Amino acid sequence: MAIKLNVEGMTCNHCKMAVTKALTELEGVSNVEVHLQEGTVDVDYDETKVNVEKLKEAIEDQGYDVK
Ligand code: 9UX
């Protein structure tokens, strides 16, 4: 499963690393691509192991808003 999330507040490379790490650590997430200029995050995940709500929580826990 692949999803593109709109994430507010990611502006520098540290933001990118924080979001990438938080998502990658979730079981079932296989790939994460943060696009700073677009304010988007592409996530590939196994929908039998994780869901969109969990992905959003992981991003929000890092201090960013998911639209
Ligand atoms: Mo960079 Mo991101 O100084 O919240 S860590 S903007």
From TrEMBL:
Keyword RNA-binding included in the entry's annotation: no
Domain HMA: 1-67
Cited InterPro entries: CopZ, Heavy-metal-associated_CS, HMA_Cu_ion-bd, HMA_dom, HMA_dom_sf, MerP/CopZ
Subcellular location, record wording: Cytoplasm
CDD domains in UniProt: HMA
Name this protein carries in UniProt: Copper chaperone CopZ
Organism ancestry: Bacteria, Bacillati, Bacillota, Bacilli, Bacillales
Keywords per UniProt: Chaperone, Copper, Cytoplasm, Metal-binding
